[in-house]
Structure formats: C-alpha cells, structure tokens
C-alpha cells in the first residue's frame, strides 16, 4: 500500500518510489493477462468442438483461465479496500511534475516516467482495474473474431459459470472441498465469468434468455458468510452492464440489494 510522505526527499526515495515501481509491475502484469486471456479464449472457443467438449479436452487451459479470474477478483477486492492508492499515486505524479519544473528527478522516474504514470493513473482510477482489463479484452476478442459465432464465447463462459455453481451448491461436491479457499476460488471464478458474459452478450447475463442461472448463482453466494462474498456481490452490482436493464427481473434486482 502506498502512503503519503510530504516533501521528504529521503523517504520519497526509500519509501514511496519502490511502491510506485511495484504498482508499475502490476499494471504491466495486467497487459500480459489481457494477451493471455485472448489466447485462452481462442483456444477454448475455436471450432469444431462445443464449449463443454473444449473444457473437457483442454482442462489445463480451462484451469489457467480460472486462475486468471481468481487472481483478478482477488486483486480488485484488495484495490477497492485501499482507496489511498489513487491519492498517493496522484501525489507521486504531482511530485514528478514539480521536479521537472525544478530540473530535478526522482529515482523512480527511471521506471515510471510521466507518460507511464498517466497510463497507470487511468488503470488505477477504475474501481476494478484488472476486471476492467479482462472485460475489455473479451469484448475486443468477440469484435475482432467476426467469423466466430458469439455464442461460442458466451456458451464457454456460461458453461464455466454453471460448473462452478453446481460445485458450490451440490453437497456431494462441496464435501470434497478441504478448505474455504477452494470455495472462494469457485465463487470468484463464477462471478468472473458472469461479468465477462454480461459484457459480451447482447442482452447480458440477467435476462430471462440468459444461459446463466443468475438466481441460483446469487443465492449460492448469499449462503456464504457476508464478509467473504460482499466484494463479489458488489462486483455483480457495479461492474456488470445489464443489471439495470428492463429485461432484468425485479426478483434478481432484489437479491442483489
């Protein structure tokens, strides 16, 4: 976490600058995740196999997709609980701007110059920056692959959501979970694919015609301790595109209140 250190060059160098460099590494990692996600979507949706066949044949790739979603939701939950990051990064940007006027330079500027700082600022300004990156990547994948039916992508996402929901709500599967981390992993993956589905499907995940059982997914989340799922419920409330559409039933809206 970044912290404010006002006009103390030594602490700027020894305290703030290494943390700015760490934020840069996470930003650059988000770019690698974007490329990785698009490659995974291509592998999991390409003909001639159906989504379930892909997930069965390419289990290692499906697991990697799930790992990316798990990390994404984990990172964004931490980011949302540390609002000082944006304030302190803004302080860093003001400092390097002031230093340019005074012909001075911080050590961190070798890694995070003004141009990079501007890109990072846009990234961290998002409430859920990693999830926003993946949503954009999925949308771009669909728009650039016009010969690939959109259903191939949405069916892959809805199938993963269904698998996670069944694992979470079926006693014979839940009894195999050895710890709460496995439960949380499944919940994060389920929420992640729902959000991606909602971003690329024409009518979204909440419509009656959706292939995702949103009522069942929300109910299984709300059965868990509130402290472990509130961030996931907020992700559904605030990072989806179609929740407030007319096609969303009042019952689903009520479940997310």
From TrEMBL:
The keyword Lipoprotein applies. InterPro entries: CYRI (IPR039789), CYRIA/CYRIB_Rac1-bd (IPR009828). It is a lipid-anchor. Keywords: Lipoprotein, Membrane. It is found in: Membrane. It comes from the Eukaryota. The keyword Repressor does not apply. Pfam families: CYRIA-B_Rac1-bd. Residues 15-253 form the CYRIA/CYRIB Rac1 binding domain. GO terms for molecular function: small GTPase binding. One of its GO terms (cellular component) is membrane. GO terms for biological process: regulation of actin filament polymerization. Its main location: membrane. Belongs to the CYRI family. This is Family with sequence similarity 49 member A, like. It comes from Cyclopterus lumpus. The lineage of its organism: Eukaryota, Metazoa, Chordata, Craniata, Vertebrata. The gene is fam49al.
């Amino acid at each position: 976490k970044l912290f404010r250190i006002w006009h103390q060059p030594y602490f700027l160098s020894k305290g703030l600058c290494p943390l700015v460099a760490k934020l840069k590494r996470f930003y650059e990692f988000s770019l690698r995740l974007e490329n990785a996600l698009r490659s995974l979507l291509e592998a999991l949706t390409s003909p001639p196999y159906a989504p379930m066949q892909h997930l069965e044949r390419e289990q290692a790739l499906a697991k990697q997709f799930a790992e990316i979603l798990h990390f994404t939701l984990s990172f964004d939950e931490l980011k949302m609980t540390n609002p000082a990051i944006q304030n302190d990064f803004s302080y860093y940007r003001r400092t390097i701007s002031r230093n340019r006027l005074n012909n001075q330079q911080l050590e961190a500027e070798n890694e995070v110059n003004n141009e990079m700082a501007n890109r990072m600022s846009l990234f961290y300004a998002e409430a859920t920056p990693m999830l926003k990156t993946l949503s954009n990547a999925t949308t771009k994948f669909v728009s650039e692959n016009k010969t690939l039916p959109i259903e191939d992508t949405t069916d892959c996402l809805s199938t993963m959501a269904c698998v996670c929901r069944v694992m979470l709500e079926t006693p014979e599967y839940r009894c195999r979970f050895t710890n709460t981390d496995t439960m949380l992993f499944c919940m994060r993956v389920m929420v992640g694919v729902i959000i991606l589905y909602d971003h690329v499907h024409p009518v979204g995940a909440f419509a009656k015609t959706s292939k995702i059982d949103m009522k069942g997914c929300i109910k299984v989340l709300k059965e868990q301790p509130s402290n472990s799922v509130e961030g996931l419920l907020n992700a559904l409330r605030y990072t989806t595109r179609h929740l407030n559409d007319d096609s969303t039933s009042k019952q689903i809206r009520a479940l997310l209140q």
